[in-house]
Structure formats: structure tokens, C-alpha cells
Amino acid sequence: MNNILFALTLSTMAGLSTLIGTVFIFIKISNRNLNKFISFCLSFSIAVMISISILDLIPTSFFEITNVYGVGKSILVLIISFFISYIIITYLSNLIDKENKGVDLYKLGILNMIVLILHNLPEGIATFLSSYHSTSLGIKLSLAIMLHNIPEGISIAVPIYYATKSRKKAIIATIISGLSEPLGAILAFLFLKRFVSDVMISIVLIVVAGLMITLSIQEMFPKVVKYNERKYLYLGLIIGTILVIINVLIS
User: Fold this and answer.
1) pTM here?
2) What does the domain layout of the chain look like in residue ranges?
3) Tens digits of residue pLDDT in 178-211
4) Percent helix, strand and coil across the chain, each rounded to 5?
């Protein structure tokens, strides 16, 4: 019972660390510096999502699937996953466009929230199962997740706040995304503990990696370029990438 509570607690803490990203919406930014600030925040989030996908989610998951099914089938899974990701992001983008015409930042925030919910669910399952079987592994994994959840919180809160001028909406969206992690842990405890395999989680995480890369390149990057703040774009990309490298080394 103690192991279960510990695993659920770690998953909840890891998920709700996204709320730390909402600190940025309480920083007073002058109109002159607003484009620079948004450019930095979005490019920072882009770097984190792409880097965590390329340096962590894809190689780890690919290796796991290859061990069971071989290289050929693993490559096929990778190709299909990215194709599915492109379809999902394009569909969601068009759907949100119909509801919120012209509100690009709001669309980015909502898309980030949806993608990160899909990311956090399997992450919550993995955190719970790891913590349940090994306390030290659970702590190590949850700390690594907390580190990359903070910029993910920024990628939701900052666009929604500057599109709506509502801190409440930005915080609620971030909380919803964060709570999907303990939800994944609860699902693992109630239903999936005996049935979820490492390969199943790996396939889901490859799809999620595809979603994050597609979202970053197709939706977020063009928006950042429009602000024409190259210095802050590059700065965000560099700092975000360095953070992920540190994160991967820790985990």
C-alpha cells in the first residue's frame, strides 16, 4: 500500500510541475518587449518538445520495440506514427481554426494542451509502474519529468494568456494538462498494471513524439518566425535544447 501511495504521489507531483510554467504569465512585460518575450517562450518550448522527442522518447521507444519485433517493424511503426501525428495535428488545427478564427496564440495553447495530455497519460503510467517497482528509479524518473514539464507548462499558459488576457483560463488549461499524468497513474493502478507492456507504452510514446515534433514545426515555429525576433528565437532554442540534454543525462 505504501508503494502505491508513493507512486501516485510522485506521478501527481511530476504532472503538476507544469503549473510552475504559469509563473511566466505573472511577469509584467511592456508592449515594446512583448514580442520578444513570446518569441523566447515559444521557441524555448519548441526546443524542449523536439529535443525530448529526438533525444529521449524516440530512441528509447525504438530500442524497446526493436528488441521484440526487429528493426524493420520498428521503422514501420515510426513511419506510421508520424503519419498519424500529421493527420491528428492538421485535423485539430483546422477544427480549432473554425471555432477561433484569427486567434493564433489561443490555437497554439489549446493544441499544446491536447498534445501534452496525450504525452502525460503514458508518462504517468510509466512513472507509476517505475515507482511501484523501484523507489530510486521512480524518484529519478519523476525528477526528469518535472524538469521538462515546466517548459511544457509555459507552452500552454503563455499563448492562452496573451490571446485571452485571462490568467484563469491559462492556469485551468495548464492544470488539465498536468492532471493527465496522475490520471495515467490511477489507470495503471486500477486497470493496466497487469496488462500494459513496455512495447505498448513505447508505441504510444513514439506517436506522442511525432505529435510534439509535428506541432512544433507545423504550428509553433511559423508563429515564432512571424514575430521577427531572431535573437530571442535562437536564445530560446539553445536554452531549451541544453535543458533537455541535462534532463536526458539525469534520467
Assistant:
1) 0.79
2) 2-13+53-250
3) 999 889 888 877 876 666 677 877 888 888 888 8
4) 90, 0, 10
